[in-house]
Amino acid sequence: MSAQVPAGVEDTYTEAVDAALDEAGAERDAPLWVFGDQLGPAVHGLPQHAEREVVLVESAAVLRRRRYHRQKLHLVLSGMRHLDDELGDRSTYHRTETYREALAEVGRPVVVHQPTSHTAVEFVERLRKDGLVAAVLPPTTFARPRAEFEAWAGDDDSFTMENFYRNQRRRFDVLMDGEQPVGGKWNLDHDNREPPPKTETLGVPDPWWPTEDEIDQQVRRDLDDMVLPTVGADGPRLFAVTPDEARKALRRFVDHRLDPFGPHEDAILAGDPWMAHSLLSVPQNLGVLHPLEAVHAAEQAYHDGTARLNSVEGFVRQILGWREYIWHLYWHFGKGYTKRNEMDHRKALPTWWTELDGDHVTAACLSSALNGVRDRGWVHHIPRLMVLGNHALQREYRPSALSEWFTTSFVDGFAWVMPPNVVGMSQHADGGKLATKPYTSGGAYINKMSDHCGDCAFDPKVRVGEKACPFTAGYWQFVHRHESLLRANQRTARAVATMDRLKDLDAVLEQEHGRRDF
């Protein structure tokens, strides 16, 4: 096994990669084309590619096609150019208008691992039919092969993340004591719901930060010259884009931040956007950090006694559970899933939202979240779900537009990531295929789990009037609009019963129908 390939990857994927190469009759030295989210050794380091030139393509048409966050474009281009620099003579870097032009420059059919979106898969298949692609190989940057997941899931759409997560733990023997979970419980989420401390920061050591180099400086100059239709602020690179950087970021997290991660992972501190989160989503989604590397490092910290079990289990659940679940559901639910809109929400995203203009917003939590996206292209999962997603659900934004916004505005957003997370989990637009109830709440939850409400112009306890919290009042407007659906769900029927007892419901509905100030 190549020393570069993450442990377990070759054993898992060798047979499938070999079969795809044999079936296609691809030459042993056919060039390997890697996309901008396939930049790690789990792709180019496989022994089947040892004799291959690596082809990297920077397509101007792709960069212009959507309005990406400026820092996201920087991360992808920096990752690609750093890989080109690392591989030296083994790689060729093509800056062309289109992918087709670059493949024509290569001059011979390439092999490529299956890309990570339905649209890209269809495009690669067209290239294969046109003779520009010799073989399409299985994706190798996730723990579980797609074929194995489909065999496990079968035709059943009713499987839950918890069942999948337990199966993952057994499949990869992570945090297991024989056939049972270490500690006797599969899920320690109950221990990881603490509100934020009464301090401005969590008080943990900083994450690992990259040091920009000449490659980054050239990327920034080139992006300036391209005059692309970006959103968000430029800024220093905050995330790892190479395998070496990713290992340093992982080591910093495991050694200094993993132990305190769990208890407050669902909390928000306005002055501490990172808290104890790992910041590993970008290197994972660029393919430079394999999920099993991160999971095994965290597991070892538990066995070494340097990180508490609930923190390690929470982190493992995020990666081996939720992230892998989302990846597989993207394919399992099919191409049309992004268009699902079972709640019939059709409002356009407001301009202040798409422009990331948090300064336009009065509500402290919403303003902070939008400005976090503007300044960093990133906020952690609770502002995403319980502030941004919660607001969008209450205000009935179109789910497909919201999914596209998350994909382009977040530095870790890719086509496979956001549809299940947004359309399914956040907006409940899939009719309950992913989540058993809509994830919405009033201001009381935000007040409990953040420090935003104390200085906010709105009061989370007030439904009507100048100080009425848009999340509290918006929650009851949402319950009223979807009364039939929520009454029929045992997890939400109590909310409808509570709404029926509100004496000021008519005033709330009239107020929220005309609300302009958030």
TrEMBL record:
<dbReference type="InterPro" id="IPR052551">
    <property type="entry name" value="UV-DNA_repair_photolyase"/>
</dbReference>
<dbReference type="InterPro" id="IPR036134">
    <property type="entry name" value="Crypto/Photolyase_FAD-like_sf"/>
</dbReference>
<protein>
    <submittedName>
        <fullName>Cryptochrome/photolyase family protein</fullName>
    </submittedName>
</protein>
<dbReference type="InterPro" id="IPR007357">
    <property type="entry name" value="PhrB-like"/>
</dbReference>
<dbReference type="InterPro" id="IPR014729">
    <property type="entry name" value="Rossmann-like_a/b/a_fold"/>
</dbReference>
<dbReference type="Pfam" id="PF04244">
    <property type="entry name" value="DPRP"/>
</dbReference>
<feature type="region of interest" description="Disordered">
    <location>
        <begin position="185"/>
        <end position="210"/>
    </location>
</feature>
<feature type="compositionally biased region" description="Basic and acidic residues">
    <location>
        <begin position="187"/>
        <end position="197"/>
    </location>
</feature>
